[in-house]
Specification:
- The chain has helices at 32-48, 57-66, 74-78, 80-92, 95-99, 154-159, 164-180, 194-199, 201-217, 224-232, 237-247, 249-252, 258-262, 264-274, 304-308, 310-318, 337-353, 364-375, 381-389, 441-459, and strands at residues 2-8, 11-17, 21-26, 68-72, 110-114, 125-131, 134-141, 147-152, 187-190, 276-280, 286-290, 297-298, 325-329, 356-361, 403-414, 421-429, 432-433, 437-438.
- It is an alpha+beta fold.
- The protein has a domain at 53-76 and 120-182.
- The strands form 5 sheets. A 6-stranded mixed β-sheet has the order 9-13-14-3-15-16, sandwiched between helices. It has a 4-stranded antiparallel β-sheet with strand order 4-8-7-6.
- Strand 11 and strand 12 (297-298) form a beta hairpin.
- Helix 17 (337-353) packs across helix 18 (364-375).
- The mean pLDDT is 87.
Length: 468
């Protein structure tokens, strides 16, 4: 899947592909967050809001008249590019909400999704709509079939309990899932503001409840939810999602992720990184319990690294599943270099498990360690010795073809309508070699400069360090 962006923040024109692991690195204010937020916003819009339009109203008439309709999916496959184009245009109008910015900033913004492969329908699909103990509507697709079968119960047709527009929405969502379910992952984002969301979790809960309480006492004409959502629109969508996730930890912690069921060893590795575990009490009190100790620390008492990994920990233990996209803005926040290495191992193992990972980073440690995992992933005797000697987990080794790396920087690009190339802020693909790793020049140039200065300091007197 390719994402094309025009006139979004500092990014004049950019294109990047979503790999099993995707990394955007570069300096400050170079467009990394713009690209990340834009992708997350689209995937959230696609999952939560967008519906594929039913092509033929006659099919809905047939459903309500006869109780069943067989929708041919072939015509939707032929129109898949048109459907995606329509979704992108609708999403462009949502960008002010995604970025919590004035709509004037997005007047010329373009966002486009391009699928690398042809549409492959889900092999099977089944959704049944029930109220109380009665089934009202079923939507199914059988294996090796190109039809979506929609069935409305006779009782439902006679009493018309589900409005026509609601039935159409269920069909539109089913069409979206059957057609594109293999294309778009379900995203979770850990924004750079996650540490603040962890610290003020209880306060955010209190303020929300207090606001609703005060509004309930006010004039009856006030719509409490409208005011509440107006307040939340002051923050970008990823930040709001982090706040909502933190507030709901008590509920989220009751679920088990695919990792907890299938790969508890990955969760153990995460526990080793943070040096303990998180827990939520029945009273919704959040604590960190250091490994091997009986003491329980509140979030305020815990280290900044514990706070920065809090939401990622709960996501991994209680939400994560194969096919997801885990997006982390600056995973190195507050982490010692050794833990930056270890979190890189964990990300690589998640990719090999089947969870896509998307990172923005300023960390040379993360890129260098990822290079090591790439270079060790070869069948050579001396590399096997290094793996054993340095205690690398073979499951953390990763193939270079699973990784896409982009440098946010200025480059000469040809803008639409221009014959000459113009220097603009964009995303430049980094070279990745299975034997040499990633060429991350944005880090290399800085490190080389620092080394050069230190060499000059040491050798500027002609190397006579011991004149005495």
């Amino acid at each position: 899947m390719k994402i094309r962006i025009e006139n979004l923040g500092v990014l004049k024109q950019a294109e990047f592909s979503l790999g099993d692991m995707t990394i955007i690195c570069g300096g400050n204010n170079t467009g990394k967050t713009y690209a990340t937020y834009a992708l997350f916003g689209f995937l959230s819009f696609w999952r939560d809001e967008y519906l594929v339009s039913v092509k033929n109203d006659g099919e809905l008439d047939q459903l309500f008249a006869e109780g069943v309709v067989h929708i041919d999916l072939s015509k939707y496959i032929l129109d898949s590019k048109k459907i995606l184009s329509e979704a992108c245009k609708k999403y462009e109008r949502k960008l002010p909400l995604v970025f919590a910015a004035p709509k004037e900033r997005f007047t010329d913004t373009k966002f486009k999704i391009i699928l690398d492969e042809d549409i492959h329908l889900l092999e099977q699909y089944e959704q049944r709509i029930r109220t109380a103990s009665t089934e009202r509507l079923s939507l199914t697709k059988s294996e090796d079939s190109n039809e979506l079968v929609v069935t409305l119960l006779e009782y439902e047709r006679k009493n018309i309990l589900i409005p026509r527009e609601i039935v159409e929405q269920f069909i539109g969502n089913a069409l979206k899932e059957v057609l594109f379910g293999n294309c778009f992952p379900s995203p979770y984002i850990s924004s750079a503001e996650r540490t603040g969301a962890a610290i003020f979790r209880k306060e955010l809960n209190f303020k929300r409840n207090r606001l609703l309480e005060e509004m309930s006492r006010a004039d009856k004409k006030i719509n409490p939810m409208e005011i509440l959502f107006k307040v939340y629109n002051d923050y970008p969508l990823p930040v709001k999602n982090n706040v909502n996730f933190m507030r709901d930890l008590g509920t989220i912690s009751k679920n088990s992720s695919a990792l907890e069921d299938e790969r508890p060893d990955l969760l153990s590795d995460f526990a080793d990184i943070i040096g303990g575990k998180y827990t939520v009490t029945q009273n919704d009190e959040l604590y960190f319990i250091p490994k091997g100790k009986r003491v329980k620390l509140s979030v305020d008492e815990s280290s900044s690294s514990i706070r920065s990994l809090l939401d990622i920990g709960f996501y991994l233990r209680h939400v994560a599943k194969r096919g997801d996209l885990l997006m982390v803005d600056e995973p190195e926040l507050n982490l010692h270099p050794e833990n930056q290495r270890r979190i890189t191992w964990l990300f690589a193992r998640l990719v090999n498990f089947g969870i896509k990972v998307f990172l923005t980073t300023h960390s040379d440690y993360i890129i260098k360690e990822l290079n090591t995992l790439i270079m060790l992933n070869q069948d050579k005797p001396h590399l096997k010795q290094i793996i054993q000697k340095e205690d690398y987990n073979p499951e953390a080794l990763i193939s270079s073809d699973k990784i896409k790396v982009y440098i946010a920087e200025k480059a000469l690009i040809k803008l639409a309508g221009n014959k000459r190339r113009t220097p603009c802020q964009t995303l430049v693909p980094a070279d990745i070699d299975s034997e040499l790793g990633i060429e991350a020049r944005s880090f290399d140039e800085t490190i080389e400069k620092m080394n050069s200065i230190q060499e000059e300091i040491i050798w500027s007197d002609g190397g006579n360090c011991n004149d005495e």
